[in-house]
Amino acid sequence: MQVLQVQLEVGADPAEVGRARRWARSRLVGSGIGDDEPVAETLILLISELVTNAVVHTGCPAVLRMLFGLGAAEAGTVRVEVADTSAAPPRPRHADGEDTNGRGLELVDGLADRWGWQPEGAGKRIWCEVDRRTPEAASGAYAPASSVSSASSAPSYESSSYKPAVYKPSRAVPRPA
Question: Nearest Cα to 108, choosing from 83, 91, 124?
Answer without folding.
Answer: 91
